[in-house]
Amino acid sequence: MNRVNLAIIGGGLVGASLALTLQGAAKARGWKILLIEPFAPGDSFQPSYDARSSALSYGTRQIYEQLGLWQAISRRAEPIRQIQVSDRGRFGATRLDALEEGVPALGYVVENAWLGQCLWQAIDNEVISWRCPAEVKAMQAIAGGYRLQLDDDTSLECDLAVLADGGRSGLREQLGIHVRRTPYDQSALIANITPGEAHAGQAFERFTEQGPMALLPLPENRCALVWTRQGMDAKRLAELDERSFLRELQDAFGYRLGALRQVGARHLYPLSLVEAEEQVRPHLVVLGNAAHSLHPIAGQGFNLSLRDVQSLAEALLAGPALPGDLATLQAYHQRQRLDQALTIGFSDQVTRLFGSAQPLLAAGRNLGLLGLDLLPPARSWFARQAMGLGTRPDPRGRA
């Protein structure tokens, strides 16, 4: 295969979702789509206590329903029926409820390995081909597309190259696409926890003077922990023995789920807001974390990327017979500009407001949480942002 219509560089959750969004129409149009991925997916799903997971918004469920994938994904998707938001040591608190918002769940927590398995199994190999394990070492713009040089010394050409190879994309740098990087001077400690009581579909956003934390419901009564701390403090927590770690976590979180019983493997991720200064060029799109990497505490990153995927697919299918012309790609980016600005701004401001120990900001967020609790319209607006519906139609049919 020396030339394809679309080469998707990165066959992870974002790249595979784009391929599946285009799959039906691509078959009708005769498009050839190639996924290039350095890590081969497993042949079957293997449950693991320490599996990493993603929070999928209600809007993301809607997108996967349209693709006919949600029934499979939902088999291991833990619904978030309530989100409790609180500020440690202060009265401010609010609760978002799926029943109040008229939806079956505010969101869902799914293990990444399971989600990937559901996506990869849905791929039609007559339309979508794999080069895996394989890595693109160099890209060169040519007339009508790009030439890709792979690590096995083969090359291929494409009408449209989609760069979905993650937040540390070497190809993005190679192409001279600059990024705006805003360090948070924090690291996220990620681990799975077993609480003493049933989580009952509750998610918790807890804000402390040392940084925010989230505890999200998982299958088998586990919870996914995202605990944001300053760099050295996060490293200290990661190196504590299990008993000492659970004691510190219990002190910060409280006993809303009883005594915390078990913690799995702990992983640290330095945190920055990263935004690519270019997302489209002729015959090129930057997608997923390569386009924007968000703070994980608000759980918006993958959901925004999936909305980008949907919008890009719609633009390509409304465009010329061959993908890649600049006008079509600019129309996609213009359409998503507001969604990206609102979502990135919401995530960044929540992170800064609730991650600060400054007395004035702490008092302000305390009043803000009280206001959310007392004013249903404000609470509903906040819930819609969390559900990934800030720029999408209201599921209840309201304006």
Could you please describe the fold and organization of this structure?
Helix content is 36%, strand content 31%. The protein contains twelve helices and 20 strands. It has helices at residues 13-29, 58-66, 70-73, 98-101, 112-121, 170-174, 231-239, 242-253, 301-318, 326-354, 359-374, 376-386, and strands at residues 3-9, 33-36, 53-57, 77-80, 82-87, 93-97, 107-111, 128-131, 136-142, 145-150, 155-163, 179-195, 202-208, 211-218, 222-230, 260-263, 267-276, 280-281, 284-286, 292-293. Strands 5, 6, 12, 13, 14, 15, 16, 17 and 20 form a nine-stranded mixed β-sheet that branches. α1 runs parallel beside α5 and α1 (13-29) runs parallel beside α9 (301-318). Mean pLDDT is 85; it is low at 359-379 and 393-399.
